[in-house]
Write a structure and sequence with these properties.
The chain is α/β, with parallel strands linked by helices. The strands form three sheets. It has a four-stranded parallel sheet with strand order 3-4-5-6. The protein has one domain. The longest helix has 20 residues. The chain starts with a helix and ends in a 5-residue tail after the last helix.
Length: 208
Amino acid sequence: MTSLQMRNDPLFMRNSFKVTGKWDIPIIKNQDIPLDNVCLIAYSDTKRNDIPENTACGVHFFIDDYRFTGIYNHPEKSISKLSQYAFLLTPDYSTYSDMNYWRQLESVAHSRWVGAFWQSKGLTVIPTISWSDTRSYGFCFDGIEKGSIVAVGMVGCKTDNKSAFLRGYNAMLEHIDPIAIICFAAPFPEMQGNIIAVDYLDSRKVVR
């Protein structure tokens, strides 16, 4: 590939989708899913030619980042496998408070880009929202349409700063006004909104 070809390669430029906000974050379109019986399995538990008991679920990425680096670096490779499942939560790239902000911004942008890419391939996508401290609010809610269904992860939040999590959660409610929040693991009692709780242990009971 020549330098000019590389310069114009969509996977180098990553500018194929509509964007919003100060940082040109890709937009994930609002999509609906049935909310009466939401089930999730981890991306690390997915496989090709999976069985119906598993493909009826959505796929979550509340796992270590290293397990899904290829989702962004080589997005086409996973389309066939992921298209089996009912819906996809966007990758939960880390936004730890001790990360430099360019890394947190990168994590949010990568997650939104992957979601927009999946939607362009006809997959149903629910955005995962994460944040760190108040400074991250300037970008961590970008790219999500008002009234969307969203997902948040609680694993790890129980041992971190609860008040900081709740501040971010309430800011998310204000910015996005989600119609429903898929909550991976038990929510805090103080959390408001139409919360759809998904049991962490149930998500690991994959049928094989």
